[in-house]
Design a protein that fits this description.
By secondary structure, the chain is of the alpha/beta class. It has one domain: TIM Barrel (Alpha-Beta Barrel). It is about 35% helix and about 10% strand. It has an eight-stranded parallel beta barrel with strand order 1-2-3-4-5-7-9-10, surrounded by five helices. A two-stranded parallel sheet has the order 6-8. The longest helix has 28 residues. The protein is globular, with a radius of gyration of 21 Å. Bound molecules: 6-O-phosphono-beta-D-galactopyranose (BGP). 6-O-phosphono-beta-D-galactopyranose binds next to loops.
Length: about 475
């Protein structure tokens, strides 16, 4: 795309993203409590992570304890982001840095001070923070003592936390996301990382083959509580500062029918519904989708919905939609258990995939942007997109991550087409701004960053930062507002 004028709107929010438990490290310093991710061991493609009830550092390595050490390096990191030309930095606040146990009387001042310094540093460099309130980091105490989000009391504890940070950072932060990838809440993975509830295997798997109706019911009840919390936060954020904008944050799932068999087409529709629209309808339309009752009945789900809940949802619709986009999957009827099935569906035989088996599908992004926009007509922001890859540093220190450049270029072309289609796309933050720990596998060597961090899967290394080729390439893209993709 060598157009002289850009199709990206003026003020388009180019940037990069991270999450606290994957980048900060310093998991138990300055008064911070343990979050659920601090109890997760490392793993890799073949060996799923474990969640241990007791942190046993003699026996296991817990990658979130180190992250990429951003807690120590945040000034340097933000200077690098400014050099790349970021307009926004999407990061998350670690709930257990502010309320170490989640139910403490008063917030931890050192935690509040840390994020204040970080946000001020961003502002000094003309970078607007985009802040996720909870990115897989519920305080561990709330998992153990309350059973996580399935307990309605957690709504008020979250609101207290939200009120604290909304008040504290008024004026410094005006763009907020409530729950990261809330739609993972329908499956085991989401429940582990948001409530610490383990499947029998004790391992972090996407789906739990042994889940009972009771387990499924609990997950949907937890999601209902997250919806109520999010809706109340939207109202609260607007009251505290009318400048605040609050978005939902979804894992963007795109499902294609594997064949044109009508049964496969219907299956793809069902997959789109449960993976995307169950949560998005609640958060964007303020009500459960019309087919929810059928779904609940078929899955033995019976939710406790308090009398006031429906009006809370109706009065707490988000201002915009943010989502992550990495891959697409295919739907095929009657394939819940079938050889070759991925965690989400069938692999698409027409697409290449990354070394972790994630399909690469830039055109799917244009399709999904149009799907979301047609349904909700709210501004959209892509807050995660990128490629995880093994990378090495050359003898001269350089890192040639051409695969990342190619990946991003094709996705930018798809974004430009969607904008030309008429979609209101307001920003893009790549995943990730800098190398961090993988959420799924706990590896460090599954690298996503524009900036290389010299560290390995067991926390060894200098943690020195080096700009990759993609850093320089993205810098040109940003300075030309998406014109120069060469
Ligand atoms: C999303 C999460 C991120 C991030 C990313 C990449 O689901 O919001 O936290 O890690 O996926 O996934 P992974 O780290 O498993 O490769």
């Amino acid at each position: 795309m060598n157009k002289e004028t850009t199709v990206f709107p003026k003020g388009f929010l180019w940037g990069g993203a991270t999450a606290a438990t994957q980048c900060e490290g310093a998991w138990n310093v300055d008064g911070k409590g343990a979050s659920v991710l601090d109890h997760c061991t490392n793993g890799d493609k073949e060996h799923p992570r474990l969640v241990t009830e007791v942190i046993d550092t003699e026996k296991y390595f817990y990658p979130s304890h180190e992250g990429c050490k951003q807690y120590e390096h945040f000034e340097e990191d933000i200077e690098l982001f400014a050099e790349a030309g970021f307009k926004t930095y999407r990061l998350s606040i670690n709930w257990s840095r502010i309320f170490p146990n989640g139910d403490d009387e008063t917030p931890n001042q050192a935690g509040l001070d840390y994020y204040r310094r970080l946000f001020e540093k961003c502002r000094e460099h003309g970078i607007e923070p985009t802040v996720t309130m909870t990115h897989y980091d519920i305080p561990w105490h709330l998992c153990v003592e309350y059973g996580g989000w399935a307990n309605r009391k957690v709504i008020d504890l979250f609101l207290k936390y939200a009120k604290t940070i909304l008040t504290e950072y008024k004026g410094l932060v005006t763009r907020w996301l409530t729950h990261n990838e809330i739609n993972f809440g329908t499956i085991s993975y989401g429940e582990i990382i948001t409530s610490g509830i383990l499947p029998k295997s004790g391992r972090i798997l996407m789906q739990d083959p042994d889940a009972t109706t009771e387990d499924v019911n609990r997950r949907f009840q937890a999601l209902h509580h997250e919806f109520i919390a999010s809706a109340k936060v939207v109202q609260l954020a607007h009251e505290i500062d009318p400048e605040n904008e609050v978005g939902c944050m979804m894992c963007g799932f795109a499902f294609y029918p594997l064949t044109c068999k009508p049964e496969d087409v219907a299956e793809a529709q069902r997959d789109m519904e449960i993976w995307n629209y169950y949560c998005m309808d609640v958060m964007c339309k303020g009500k459960y989708p019309y087919w929810a009752k059928r779904y609940w009945k078929e899955h033995g789900i019976s939710l406790e919905i308090a009398e006031e809940d429906l009006s809370i949802l109706a009065n707490g619709m988000v201002d915009f939609i943010s989502f992550s986009y990495y891959r697409t999957d295919c739907s095929k009827a009657n394939t819940q258990v079938v050889e070759g099935r991925t965690d989400f569906g069938m692999p698409n035989p027409m697409l290449e995939a990354t070394e972790w088996g994630w399909t690469i599908d830039p055109q799917g992004l244009r399709w999904l942007l149009n799907e979301y926009y047609a349904r909700y007509e709210k501004p959209l922001m892509i807050v995660e997109n990128g490629i995880g890859a093994y990378e090495t540093q050359e003898a001269d220190g350089s890192i040639h991550d051409q695969a990342r450049i190619d990946y991003m270029r094709e996705h930018f072309k798809a974004m430009a087409q969607a904008i030309e289609d008429g979609v209101e796309l307001i920003g893009y933050t790549c995943w990730s701004a800098i190398d961090i720990v993988s959420a799924g596998t706990g590896e460090f060597k599954k690298r996503y960053g524009l900036i290389y961090v010299e560290a390995d899967d067991l926390g060894n290394g200098s943690y020195k930062r080096t700009k990759k080729d993609s850093f320089y390439w993205y810098q040109k893209v940003i300075s030309s507002n998406g014109v120069d993709l060469a």
